Amino acid sequence: MCDLEKVRSICIVLLSGIGDVVHGLPLLEDIGRAVPRAEVTWIAEAAPAQVLAHHPHLDRLLVFRPREGVRGVLDLRREMDGYRADLTLNIQRYFKGVWPTLFSGAPCRVGLPRSKTRDGVRFFLTHMLQDGPWKHTQDIFLDFRGALGVPRDAPVSWDLCLSRDEEEEGRVFLATLSGKPVVSLVLASANAAKDCPSTLLADVADALAEDFGFQVVLLGGPSSRERAVASDIRRRAGTPPVDATGDSVRRLMTRIAVSSLVIAPDTGPLHIAHAMGVPVIGLFGHTNPWRVGPFQRFRDLVIDRYTEPGAAPDPAGYLPKNGRMEGITVQDVLEKVELARWRYL
Fold first, then answer.
1. Residue 159 and residue 44 in contact, taking contact as beta carbons nearer than 8 Å
2. Looking at 232-319, which runs of residues are DSSP E strands?
3. How far apart are CA 5 and CA 37, in angstroms?
4. Does the predicted model carry a pTM greater than 0.85?
5. Which helix (H) or strand (E) holds 60?
6. Which residues contact 248 (CB under 8 A, 6 or more apart)?
7. Do the beta carbons of residue 104 and residue 83 sit within 8 Å?
8. 236: Cβ–Cβ under 8 A, 6 or more apart, which residues?
9. Tens of pLDDT, residues 21-79
10. Mean pLDDT of the 171-197 span
11. By the 8 A CB rule, do 93 and 15 touch?
12. Does the pLDDT at position 222 exceed 90?
């Protein structure tokens, strides 16, 4: 697509949520191997940008706030004034990725296939990836390897990095607990339809503590909904779990790193756990786990209420299915806990 021999500066445009940014991390490793002389800039939104801190193959991180409208665009324009990339990878489906792509000044701008973009994004690209059927989000992002001269089947590495201070913070947090293996319950996603009822999570928390002997920790953000769920679980549970919810993505990462097991719906912490190699039980009904669930590891721990009974898993399905999360039972979760304990713990 582009002459990599002339590439000295690469810009990655990948905004969206934490999970998407985690799925983009392997491209940093690929650039480090294939174009090691290139300086790499990544443009992300504020919360997902925290995932990228301390990455050895990232030279510059810029934050774009598209929700601020014109002000956000102008702030980004000023931040990128004088910057020029040789190659920009626009991994964004929607129009908000157009602004940083144009501001990068790259003569070679590679984006998703025409069928995978919206809002006329294709008109602002010089090259598009080859079209094909829908597949797992990670697989779609790995198709950008073609623009980097990296074999499509090369090993995948996420390389989520904690600083020494963060590793120490995790050890200190672990020392405040009971000494039992930690199971972290992720309370909620950005979309309430993806979440399990707090009554189910409270019963799961009790079983984890009383029947399995785990130390249960609650993880989540600072939203009023997550705070309400955490309070309700602690009120209902016979053995109240530790509330470790907060507003720092980096601190959440330290909590996941010291966990023996994570249980999560379709949300960013699930993908952080997968990338860190921490076994994760995925709770899916509203969204398709074979499209947005764990990529390579821990697929055997997925609870799938999205796929119709008797049907084969199919990553092409994208329409949400309402009311499916309520079909997940405590027994479903505990069976996966048993499987995780047998295979991974």
1. no
2. 242-243, 261-265, 280-284, 303-304
3. 10
4. yes
5. strand 60-63
6. 50
7. yes
8. 198, 199, 202, 203
9. 999 999 999 999 999 999 999 999 999 999 999 998 999 999 999 999 999 999 999 99
10. 94
11. no
12. no
